[in-house]
Automatic annotation (TrEMBL), chain A:
The lineage of its organism: Eukaryota, Metazoa, Ecdysozoa, Arthropoda, Hexapoda. The gene is LOC117642806. The keyword Zinc does not apply. SUPFAM superfamilies: P-loop containing nucleoside triphosphate hydrolases. It comes from Thrips palmi (Melon thrips). Residues 186-215 are annotated as: Disordered. GO terms for biological process: protein transport. The keyword Metal-binding does not apply. Residues 186-198 have a biased composition (Polar residues). InterPro entries: P-loop_NTPase, Small_GTP-bd, Small_GTPase. Its main location: other. This is small monomeric GTPase.
UniProtKB/TrEMBL annotation, chain B:
GO terms for molecular function: ATP binding; GTPase activator activity; protein kinase activity. The keyword Transcription does not apply. InterPro entries: Kinase-like_dom_sf, Prot_kinase_dom, Rab-GAP-TBC_dom, Rab-GAP_TBC_sf, Rhodanese-like_dom, Rhodanese-like_dom_sf. This is TBC domain-containing protein kinase-like protein isoform X1. Residues 740-841 form the Rhodanese domain. SUPFAM superfamilies: Protein kinase-like (PK-like) (SSF56112), Rhodanese/Cell cycle control phosphatase (SSF52821), Ypt/Rab-GAP domain of gyp1p (SSF47923). It holds the Pfam family RabGAP-TBC.
Amino acid sequence: MANRGGPAQRPNPQTQGKICQFKLVLLGESAVGKSSLVLRFVKGQFHEYQESTIGAAFLTQTVCLEDTTVKFEIWDTAGQERYHSLAPMYYRGAQAAIIVYDITNMDSFGRAKVWVKELQRQASPNIVIALAGNKADLANSRAVECEEAQTYADENGLLFMETSAKTAKNVNEIFLAIAKKLPKNEQASGAGSTNQGRRLQELDGSPKAAGNCCK
Amino acid sequence: MSKASTMQKPSMEPRFAGITFFATSHVGDVCGTNGLPLTPNSITIYGRSQILRTFSHPNLCAYLDIIRGKHERTMIVLEYYALSLSSAQCSISEQGIVKLCQQTLQALAYINTFGVVHRCLAPDNILFDSKGNVKLFNYGLYYMTGQGGDVSFPIGNPRYTAPEVFLVDSQTVSGPKVDVWSLGIILAELALGVGQLWPELKLAQLMRKVLSLIHCNSDTSVLSRIAREHSCWTKYESLPKSLVALINSCLQLKPSDRPTPEELLKHPAFLEHDIANLEIHPFERVEGVRGKEHALSSLPLQELFYLWRLAGGDVQAELKKQGLIRTMPTILSVPRLVLLEGNILGKRRDQTSLLDLKIIPLSLDTLALRLSNVPVSAYYPLIETRSEIIQDDDECDAANLPLIIRERDTEYQFRRIVLFRRLLEGYPYTRSAIIREARRDIPPLYRGAVWAALLEVEGDIDAHFIETDKETPTHTDRQIEVDIPRCHQYDELLSSREGHRKFKRVLKAWVETNPQYVYWQGLDSLCAPFIYLNFNNEAKAFACLSAFIPKYLHRFFLKDNSAVIREYLAKFTHIIAFHDPDLSNHLQEIGFIPDLFAIPWFLTMFSHVFPLPKILHLWDQLLLGDASFPLYVGLAILQQHRDALLSSGFNECILLFSDLPEVDIERCLSDSVSLYCCTPRSTTYRQHERVVVKTPSQKNRPHHPDLEMSAQTVAELQAESCPRISGADLLDLLDAVKFPRPKVLVIDVRGPELYNIGSAPGSINIPHTRFDWTAEIPQLPSCPEANTLLQNRGKILVVAGQGDSPQAAQVAQVLLRSGLPRVCILHRGIDVLQLGNLLTKPSST
């Protein structure tokens, strides 16, 4: 049961056309299932007792989209409020973000709204934001109504889905929806992996970095 | 034949025995309301029963281990004696009965203070040691199974069960008084000399019989009715009044009239005779004549059992061999029909899952044979004086084998355990000896105690823990509660409910006693090894955690810890550059900075990134080092994956370390120690490090403050690629007496005019102006001095400039880029050497 839903489709090298590389960041209250969503998406696995994330974890996954291959570089961040000061290091320069909340926990939805505001203010202006109401398999202990979240998402121009890392419901779908919405023209292929590192570091040392935790 | 019998055959009476039962399994994969799967009952039992291992009373058999088998099986190992009240074939004197009663009550009163009730007290659970003293057996069954809630069988022998137990539903928890009734029945059997009461009755009749005793009243006591029913009225009449009164107190029908064990101990019957020196049994001397006791008998039972397992003892295999664990072919346990909702129909009831009270003694012969060539002197090692006559060092073959093998070698562990037990008994006076021995290795059996000693845990830790508030709800509770069920949950102890409770209490106590700090995710991982090792001693786990954090993670848990962590990571970057320039250059180039991967390493001292067995070995060594030692562990981990890192780009590198790859901990630790030993201390100076007040006995160098390190901002640290070395450390390295072959080369980057006035002994002069700073990547200029420099590769290369001018740092970076190891910058420049009167006029070359 826990292994239902394999990892997202891997590209077939023969048929691939354009390759696009995007940086995606996961944000949200702790224990809402950020790491579990990534693990389901990247490895097709689910662990009941997913360990807490300290600092951040990095994973990559590639999805096929008609003629384009989209490679996600995923930063999975620590959820505890205290690690907040590290977050800008990960979301700066990100083209996409998934903000996760737990549908059985109203507070986590409130926290998700705070993240949305912060990204709208601080992150790249064209960032694609998706809202994921995770733990949809626990619908009988639901605390956040689907309609409420949908209305909020519509008002703020967010993608929205209720997901379940446990049953794999909407996990690949939400990443695919983000991939579709991302602009493919400016991201030329060959954005090499070494550039990624440079980019992160340069941004880290930029004047804007005064806002992060090395203040 | 004669030869075999005259030889000292290593043979010992079994000292412990195994029993087993099944916990009720949850039907199907049922999840709790939080979405997490329900904890298996056997794990709940496992966690709950740990406390039983701490019970120590002269009239109780000690619990040695609780083991989880497959399919919710629990196996228990207890201290054991072959003689039980049910197997004893001769009668006991009336005074002997009183004494038996007193000792049993003392044991019961003791377990009652822990909230434990026996509930299955019966003659087969009353054993006798070789001196004829009572040793209660299997007294934890009712407690460990959650008052019977976690098992599907009833607990207690109906013949000895108090009538009120049959009258209430199974949810009602029995109190200490049920055991007093059982004891009363046992005493009645002994006093009347009838053997078992109602021997001919079947189970259902027996229960009815016990209930029928309710008809007794103040005129006919239960005892008199039993006497009449068993036609031994004459015997009853002849019993001493005090004994009858004692039994009647036990057999009070109404629990409210019946005393608790504690109360009954005040009964006048115990005062009447001098029974302290009385022997209950006349037959116990049989054991005594067997001859000299085996030397192994002198070991504490816990050690004996630990060694028994090392010598190949396997409880499950023994139980299987004795027929207590029977396996049924899987095909027979498949149900006929399973409904979609998960209901199972037509499954044959597995008879093997019922309780079997058989006790299987575990033979010590293999262990005795394995240790037969150990001389008796090894049982009493000298710890204070080294005797020249008794050479007891390294005579064990395993001493030079890898750690993993040493930990499994019976004889080696025997020696280590005996040695450490004696050293720990002398703590804190033996602290230096404990440190010395711990450098070799720490025996797993005593790891918890040894760690506490290394962390200098002393004083009344229990009182401190008790008075700390661990209950009042705080705003960090939610975070602690979501973190605990995710922390090392593969481990049986830490995933048990009892484990979660302990986690919460210790973490809350830490937050409460450290108001300057806050709970950061990761503290749970840090707490885990201490809880694991001190599961039955929360106060010690807490004391260890409280000592560990200031020593290794001083100020890391401040609400705003960024300056502390950034400084630590900057030092980590410097240490990589100092020891491994190629790796450092590559990682810098691809932007693989420690901030992205090493925060969980250092914030949790690797306890978040490794599984428990590896953490234990890592911390064995870590605890012997200072606060900078973990930096070298981090470097050694990187170096184990050096080839992969050097050939990879940013993504591959970060993926490699997102899920920490296989690390050989033993090699990592020996590498860290050698790296640590060849690094000048001042290069890892941190302003946020805890200042340790040196005791007068320690070497005290009265240095000018300018010769010591001083604080740099994080930005300054990050701007420099190489670490700084203090003037004091340089003076030390330049000491020609201490190091006849120079270990260090000073590169003076000032202009030649200043250099010629005076510089460090043996230094070379490559002025800053000689470099082409307009080049994109400045290179080492070609000059004779540069050749000298390259020839001295491997020495500590100290780049020194004028004061704290940035020139030295720039040159140091060029040296690092050229792949030179051990480059550092002289803190405050060449000027500080004047303070040591060490400036010499360079000899003209």
